[in-house]
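User: Good morning. I'm curious how oxa(dethia)-CoA would be positioned relative to this chain. Could you predict the structure with it bound?
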Amino acid sequence: MSKTSAAITAVGAYVPEYVLTNQILETMVDTNDEWITTRTGIKERRILKGEGKGTSFLAINAAKDLIKKRGIDPKDIELVIVATATPDMKAASTAAFTASEIGAVNAFSFDMDAACSSFLFGMSVAAGYIESGRYKNVLLIGADKMSSIINYKDRATCIIFGDGAGAVLFEPNEENLGLQDEYLRSDGTGRAFLQATYGGSSYPITFEAIEKGAHCAFQEGRTVFKNAVFNMADATVKILERNNLTKNDVDWLVAHQANKRIIDATANRINLEEEKVMMNIHKYGNTTSATLPLLLNDYESQLKKGDNLIFAAFGGGFNWGSIYLKWAYNS
Ligand code: UT7
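Assistant: Good morning! Here's the predicted structure, ligand included:
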């Protein structure tokens, strides 16, 4: 009897209209287009504007895009997971609000946060529910309004991040397509190098913290960079070795979009041709939980049933890893 695997069967996405270009950033902090482009590969990012609009706004629109494209009835959705590092509020679940707004009234829902690896780890969680046999579909949304925790006076951080959301549907597959293997890791000693210190339970928000911008994301870029380069490449090599794959078996590298140099380093470590590396960092920057589904959405028309996709991510925590997934449909 063949084992039921968990496949991605639909993709949707949403990015806000406002485009924050490198040229506009030049007017806000001491930076320039040439520095940002050569050090990160980013040319522009999207920013969500509007009073009271949070991550759920992005998540809802990405989910609606998927629902429309796939033509499913939201009442049939059984579980909604919102992978995010920037929930709408501290105490009320962003996923519950999102599920209600899209009409997924028969679903249960929850948020999950593993910083920039939220969506990658979310794939593991979503697939687990399907593989268990207890659920026949899971809507996994990666969404972040990073601009809500960015200090636009900190040039080492503000140039990288943007806002956006992507959604995928996981369903059972009897052809052994979908998630094949995963290698996921965490190292909590990394949190010193990438965090938003104030606003959580260790350091509740204060007037002084807000004045200093200590409620915003801070990173020691160089340390994060070195760890990202090593661990994303290492996880990718491990997942290939464990599954007896060579670079010729890989159709696509789907890597977290934090810095083009980190993505290139991962691809170079396995000698992968540039045309097999999904890339959209130039237009969205680092959207944290949304980078991987935004890539899938941008490349969906080029993906073929049976393609071998290698996902890789690294982020705050530190959290990182790699997932091997076989694509399940032609669009
Ligand atoms: O999503 C996961 C989390 N984040 C990441 O994965 C990000 C990882 N880190 C990075 O991508 C890079 O470290 C950055 C893009 C953040 C910085 O690039 P870098 O090549 O590591 O630069 P650096 O921090 O080593 O700084 C080099 C120089 C410094 O000047 P001095 O000390 O050499 O005079 C910085 O002050 O560049 C300066 N610098 C800037 N210059 C112009 C830093 N930020 C900027 C800027 N514009 N925006």
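Residues 59 and 143 are 6 Å apart (CA to CA). The chain has a mean pLDDT of 97.
Let me know if you'd like a different ligand tried.
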